[in-house]
Amino acid sequence: MSASPGARGDLAPRIDVVSIFPGYLDALDLSLVGKARESGLVDIAVHDLRDVTTDRHRTVDDSPFGGGAGMVMRPDVWWSAIEATGRRPARAGATVAGASTEGVDADPREVVLLVPTPSGARLTQPDAHALAREASAGDVRYVLACGRYEGIDARVTERAAGDPTIRRVQEFSIGDYVLNGGEVAALVLLEAVVRLLPGVLGNPESIAEESFEGDGILEYPVYTRPALWEGLAVPEVLTSGNHGAVERWRRERALERTARRRPDLLPPLTVTELSRRDLAALAVEGVEPGRHGRLIGPVRVRRAEPADAALVADLAAMTFPLACPDSATLADVRRHIAEHLSVQVFTDYLRDPGEVVLLAYDDAHAALGYALVHLDGRGADAPAFEGRLAELSKCYVLPRAQGTGCAAELMRAVLRAAADAGADAVWLGVNAQNVNALRYYRRHGFEPVGERTYQVGAAEHHDHVLLRTLPRGVAE
Ligand code: JD8
């Protein structure tokens, strides 16, 4: 590491925490962080913000400009405190806050100002690793500014961002809920970062198996003695002594948990980095490789609302051309999309109680496919049928989701919606050349009952008409 002017390799990673409730940080004396401090692996100092105040009431806040509830923390007080963290008592007897610089050491390292705030970027494990790496590099120190009240005057971070001794201002949040101050978030960051500093964890290898490490999935379930507790036995494989089997079981459980609890963690995984066993474990949870080499699923289907009109129209414009026969001209297709698949057309469908628009999606994709069901299916080309008919007018899935369970999930929702609306059967028209679609509908119980012509732009196309009945009260 090239020694930048601020680098003092001999200095332990330094973190100064400033708060009006310094006692909140006493937890840092305990457990792993406490031991790391005792063994000099990290140098954490906690400061009371009020120590830099100069008035009799040790005031740190004032009323908000622009009105509103609560109080705001003063910029001048905060800046004094941040600056004060850089001054060290040279030797015994000198105090930092408000004292003259005589006998006070200035910490040579650049500052990274860490500010917990609900409006910050969510803190992640990769962030914790980056902060631990940076702190171990020896040329920066951290100042954690724990606000209270309605927050800290915004000019503090503005001033800091322009200050040459401050390398970066990092505003972070620990989650989408509101706390009363930054102290708890500071404790979260400190524990997450300090445990990653060299020498702190007794067995750093254990990190690799933790949640959000490696490929970022959740950790597997853990067990210890007694092997039988309250009638609950430890999974046999864990007492089998077969390490390969244990490792495979743990991987499957980790993937299973991630698919069920945190499917939002799956998209970063590329299919190529997953083994056949991984994919099999994920498939059980409805997660499959899409055409785009990323994972799709678990797929869910919801009834679209008027606010989804543009999203559905987009899907329709992207998928309709793919199902069109080769003989359809681009002009025909464009005209058809403009006339029959516009945002306005879908807005009208979405406002019509006789129309059901269903959207298939997963955590990574707001829309993977859609279907349109006319609950009154007695349209012009409707086949003869005793009983209530619904028409499946549109059923499309984006290419990336083809070959996954998405289309089947969408069809299940279509049949459920038709049955719930009291239909006895569903019919549809499908282009006679669209063999994939034909196979898909036949697989879901649709049988050919007739033919029809279908207009796309100026051209007429030949459709098969298919129908399937819905057993009373039960959708597939
Ligand atoms: C810092 C003051 C309280 C917040 C008015 C309630 C982080 N994930 C998180 N939730 N809340 C915080 C957080 C809350 C803080 C401060 C962090 C300083 N408050 C304020 C705005 C609304 N009160 C946080 N990280």
From TrEMBL:
GO terms for cellular component: cytosol. S-adenosyl-L-methionine binds at residues 147, 174-179. SUPFAM superfamilies: Acyl-CoA N-acyltransferases (Nat), alpha/beta knot. GO terms for molecular function: acyltransferase activity, transferring groups other than amino-acyl groups; tRNA (guanine(37)-N1)-methyltransferase activity. The keyword Transport does not apply. The keyword Metal-binding does not apply. Keywords: Cytoplasm, Methyltransferase, S-adenosyl-L-methionine, Transferase, tRNA processing. Pfam families: Acetyltransf_1 (PF00583), tRNA_m1G_MT (PF01746). Gene3D superfamilies: 3.40.1280.10, 3.40.630.30, tRNA(m1g37)methyltransferase, domain 2 (1.10.1270.20). It comes from the Bacteria. It is found in: Cytoplasm. Its EC number is 2.1.1.228. It catalyses: guanosine(37) in tRNA + S-adenosyl-L-methionine = N(1)-methylguanosine(37) in tRNA + S-adenosyl-L-homocysteine + H(+). Residues 299-472 form the N-acetyltransferase domain. GO terms for biological process: tRNA N1-guanine methylation. InterPro entries: Acyl_CoA_acyltransferase (IPR016181), Alpha/beta_knot_MTases (IPR029028), GNAT_dom (IPR000182), tRNA_m1G_MeTrfase_C_sf (IPR023148), tRNA_m1G_MeTrfase_TrmD (IPR002649), tRNA_m1G_MTases_N (IPR029026), tRNA_MeTrfase_TRMD/TRM10 (IPR016009). Homodimer. Specifically methylates guanosine-37 in various tRNAs. PANTHER family: TRNA (GUANINE-N(1)-)-METHYLTRANSFERASE (PTHR46417). Belongs to the RNA methyltransferase TrmD family. This is tRNA (guanine-N(1)-)-methyltransferase. It comes from Serinibacter salmoneus. The gene is trmD.
